[in-house]
Amino acid sequence: MAFIVLAMASWLSACTTSSVGSAVGAVSGLATSAATANPAVGYAVGIGVQAATDASIKAVLRHWTTQQQDLIAQLAGELPLGQSRAWAVHRTIPYGREKGQLEVIRDIPNALAFCRELLFTVEEKEQTQAYTAVICKQQQQWKWASAEPAVPRWRGLH
């Protein structure tokens, strides 16, 4: 079932999560209503499937966002100040495969954690968007520390 949800999400990537869930819910509701000859059961099944589909897709997208942020943070954490390098996310399905460049702009030392500000680009089709972010070192790894600059980039954090 999860594979079907992910496949539909990739095929309908131009649609919103809500429309994918609505479509899957409508189809399952109609099928259930026809099979049971009870529209109330069909309606209930359709609503449940829609909610489950929407929640599953949002969970996968949040997971992918975290993976992408962690990748950028790790690469930027290893990068010397002022240098740039390419980054790319590779997925098995043809959705969410993004790439760009990143550069560490400045180090931000403070008493709580060592942080860095970075500039990164995302190349999508024929345009490139630039964003800034802050990463901080937590124990032995770098983690994303920005919330506000990430909101437009990650579409409301799903």
Fold and architecture overview:
The chain is of the alpha+beta class. It has helices at 2-11, 17-36, 39-78, 150-153; strands at 84-88, 99-108, 115-124, 127-138, 141-144. It has a five-stranded antiparallel β-sheet with strand order 1-2-3-4-5. Helix 1 (2-11) crosses helix 3 and helix 2 runs antiparallel to helix 3. It is elongated. The chain starts with a helix and ends in a 5-residue tail after the last helix. Residues 1-16 have low confidence and may be disordered.
Question: Which helices and strands occur, and which strands form pairs?
Answer:
Layout: H1 2-11, H2 17-36, H3 39-78, E1 84-88, E2 99-108, E3 115-124, E4 127-138, E5 141-144, H4 150-153
Antiparallel strand pairs: 1-2, 2-3, 3-4, 4-5
Poorly predicted segments? 1-16
Count of helical stretches? 4
Give the strand order, joined by hyphens, for the main sheet: 1-2-3-4-5
Note the run of SSEs as H and E.
Answer: HHHEEEEEH
| Mean pLDDT across residues | 78
Structural class: alpha+beta
Number of DSSP-assigned strands? 5
Radius of gyration: 20 Å
The main β sheet shows up as: 5 strands, antiparallel
User: How would you describe the shape?
Assistant: elongated
Helix content: 40-55%
| Amino- and carboxy-terminal Cα gap | 21 Å
What fraction strand?
A: 25-35%
